[in-house]
Amino acid sequence: MAERIGVYVCHCGSNIAGIIDVEEVARWAGGNLQDVVVAKDYKFMCSSSGQQMIEEDIKNHQLTRVVVAACSPQLHERTFRRACKNAGLNPYLFQMANIREHISWVTTDKKAATEKAKSLVAAAVRRVRLHRPLEPLPVEVNPRTLVVGGGIAGIQAALELADAGYPVILLEREPSIGGHMAQFDKTFPTLDCSACILTPRMSEAGQHPNITLLTYSELEEVSGSVGHFKVKIRKRARYVREDRCTGCGICVEKCPTKVRDDVFEAGLGVRKSIYIPFAQAVPRIPVLDTEHCIYFTRGKCQICGKFCPTDAIDYDQKDQILEYEVGNIILATGWKMFDCTRIPQYGYGRLPNVFTAMEFERMCNAAGPTGGKIVLRDGKTEPRRVAIIHCVGSRDVNYNEYCSGICCMAALKYGHLVLEKTNAEVYSFYIDMRTNQKGYEEFYQRLLEEGMKFIRGKVAEVTNADRSEEEKGRLVVQVEDTLTGRQRRIPVDMVILMGALEPQEDAMDLARKVGISCSSAGWFTERHPKLDPVATMTDGVFVAGCCQGPKDIPASVAQGAAAAARVAGLISRRTVWIEPVVASIDESKCSGCRICNNLCPFNAIEYDEQEGVSRVITALCKGCGTCIAACPAKAIAGNHFADDQILAELEGALWDASPEALLATFGKKEEQLELKVLNV
Amino acid sequence: MKYAFYPGCSLECSSAAYAQSIAAVCRLLGIELAEVEDWNCCGATEYHSLHRLTAAAVIARNLALVDGSLTELVAPCAACFLNLKKVDHQMSEDPAWASKVNAALAAGGLMYEPGRVKVRHLVEVLHSDVGEEGIRRRVKQPLRGLKVAPYYGCQIVRPYKDVDNTEYPMKLDELMSWVEAEVVPYPTKAACCGGHMTQISEAQAYELLRRLLQSAEDAGADVILTMCPMCQLNLDAYQSGVNSYFGTKFRIPILFFTQVLGLAFGLPLKQLGFGKEIVAAIPILKQKVPAALAAASAG
After folding, report:
1. What is the mean pLDDT of residues A570-577?
2. Which of B167, B168, B211 is closest, CB to CB, to A465?
3. Structural domain tally of chain B?
4. Nearest-CA residue of chain B relative to A475?
5. Does residue A464 belong to the interface with chain B, where contact is any CB pair within 8 Å?
6. Which of A343, A350, A465 is the closest to B188 by Cβ?
7. Average pLDDT over chain B, rounded to whole?
């Protein structure tokens, strides 16, 4: 029996219709393509009235297949599948032709665009005829969630889920949770003490009965899919037994070494070889750094072990690999600061009194290396004039084109702290002042009133090559003041570089492990930039906080909570339905050669020794097709990507390449077509 | 290692010390420099502002004359280097422009295929092709105790970014550290020397030169090392002019970097063109690196 196919061409406002003659495409498809019984164009096919039109047509015209030519299936395949399902049609008897991202957005040639749209529609029509009804596979959702990253976004996500009664593993690679927020002194624009608002959340996370805290640990491997991921975690050796340590700190006190602390103190302070990164650390269990430990480097010392009252130091401790099954994963891995030495003309690392923003944060912190005093690198001199340079590595084609979003506000905060704590003047050198959240503009006005000076211009260099008596012995900021149109040289004593926020060094590796993508800059890509900001293209993997892009604390917290809500929704449903787009092995053709077993990247193929055949574990299969291509006996078929479907699709796309393809696509010869077929 | 070599006019006379020291150092390092036959002046900075096509053709002629068996052309002068690199780059980027330039060359029976010759400055070749190991291996008289300010000027690092960091270049710094000279941090290392400004406006030129000299003195440098004949001439020949104009007392010898490399390699002074500089270098060298100087004088 012939299929009855409906073709729907979307205008997408002017996104598609501005380039492609959508009416012509619909008319052409309806008039020519074999088995097409209805062909329509419509302003917004994804709107409820668009969907309703399809549903009604399915019923009224007894459609057996549906093709929608619109945007990327990533956006609306689900929408239209649902419409099919509502009208009683199996949702997999639907195919989408992407005429927006693949055509109208990437060309200005209207004629060629319209012709290509016809080809893609013909391809979809040819393909959909061979679609077979499929049923989604139910998978039970493991209620446990893995949260990767213990900064404020991760802590928030973990607490939300734990409070809802679900078990959480909170993974952090540093010795303590807290992230960057733990390093800050004050938070803008309210000037709350950062530690005062963060540490209660940290200890709550540390003590919560539903949270398993794994610090000094990293994610090694992820397999499986939504509902039932398997994760391998490397718990690095601390050389301190967590079951015995009481956190008394005697080992730290007695350790005879001093090591520059490049992590928590941003290089401004020192720690010991065995250390607890900061006073409010969670957990309060030290870590032994073998790179600097005298015992590990020279074979003698063990003072920490001798003094430990609970015998908790274990020099033989090894890394442990822990395995868990989790239903969902939330990535909240944060950011790292731009390496300011990459802009040598700003002098960081060469001119001592040039500081990074993180160094300055630590300097302002009462618990930091200078006890909260704002002083020059000599540790005692108070600056008379401070320069704060914005956009160091941001909004700069040489480094990062994006705006880091938070630095203007942080610069204002620093300005306030300098004015409050010292008698110094403060200059801000900005390109544009960006203060666009609640209370932020007011904070900017406040700093203007407090007397912070603002010079609009990108700093050319910070130099110690003086040109006058006033400049002698000081740092000089050379800048074009774009508001007065003059070059200015401003002598200062201290320079603070507002370094860009950058993705973590290993963000791409992590993305690969969990199967999500990154932007070109390296930020994790969300499922939809506006409507689905914390989900990713991989079901069961969510993102929160700065790993998705630079953002401030309130936005990070909101995303942490949002990701948790999404996960809680999946858990409370108990079952998720996963795509039936999987491989299946025809056991009568399988010779048991096992080539596919090792090729499968998801370990989704098992071998039955007794029967001598391989089998696909459908819950693990992601339908990538590797095994299908590799099977020498052609015993493996891919649902929804079967050879006949792909070949038909190609035939449709290339309908004008040969008379045979033409005949197959239209069911008629060229001269019998109602509308003239144009050759491009 | 064999390269085509474009010496440029300055090396014929005002920078003879550069020419001599280049020859001596390259001979020792096994670098063969094959001088482009019948090369002509690069037109310096002025010609481009007067007539762009003629200027480009004058420069491209030299590129066209590079021996077909060689693919890299070394220019020791910053202005020549930039002119040659710029013309090759512009011809590569703009085929229509390239055919115009080639039409001009055709009058002399020449043709240049854009991109055929890679233009390089000598400092790049010594730093990257010879490399740290190759340089260190040749050091006979480590220059410990000699404080050098490496001066790059503007044309080698700008506008093209592939030679070194444009704002704070380091290749000459590293080269000098390999012969164990004490490299002082020189904040004005990539600032302009004024070029031909001395001929047009003394006041402007002297101020630019004063900044370079002051900054080297503040950094405690014994000598300033240059890699451009113009920079050397300006800083050396106008140093007394700067002093009388500002009432300063600078006495900083300005040497070509190859002269100091040669000293570290134990080459004789005569081969390195010492003594041609106006602010005499020998007294300070005698004081700071007596052994190296004694060895070089003996040779």
Report:
1. 95
2. B211
3. 2
4. B187
5. yes
6. A465
7. 95
Residues B106 and B205 in one domain: no
Hey, which CATH number is domain A144-229+330-334+504-578, 3.90.1150.10, 3.40.190.10, 3.40.50.720, 3.50.50.60? 3.50.50.60
Nearest to A587 by CA among A604, A569, A572, A607: A607
Whole-number percent of chain B with pLDDT over 90: 95
Q: Is the pLDDT of residue A5 over 90?
A: yes
Which residues in chain B have Cβ-Cβ distances shorter than 8 Å to A345?
Answer: 167-168
Q: Domain range for residue B152?
A: 140-298
* For range B99-119, the mean pLDDT: 96
Residues of B in contact with A465 (CB under 8 A): 187-188, 211, 214-215, 218
Residues of A in contact with B188 (CB under 8 A): 463, 465
B133, B154, B168, B182 from B173: Cα distances, Å? 16, 16, 10, 9
Phi, psi of B105 (to 5 degrees): -65, -30
Same domain, B278 and B147: yes
Q: Which residue of A has its CA nearest to B165?
A: A344
Q: What per-residue confidence (pLDDT) applies to A1? A: 65
Q: B157 and B81: one domain?
A: no
Question: Tokens at residue A520, please?
Answer: 């070109």
Q: How much is the average pLDDT of A209-237? A: 95
B280 and B144 in a single domain? The answer is yes
What pLDDT, on the 0 to 100 scale, is given for residue A676? 47
Whether B134 is in a domain gets the answer no
Chain A residues inside the 8 Å CB shell of B165 = 344
B187/A465 Cβ within 8 A:
yes
> Which of 3.90.79.10, 3.50.50.60, 3.40.50.720, 3.30.70.100 is the CATH number of A337-502?
3.50.50.60
* Region of residue A643 (left: phi > 0; alpha: psi -120 to 50; beta: else): alpha
Specify the CATH number for the domain of residue B292: 3.40.50.11810
- Say what the pTM is: 0.85
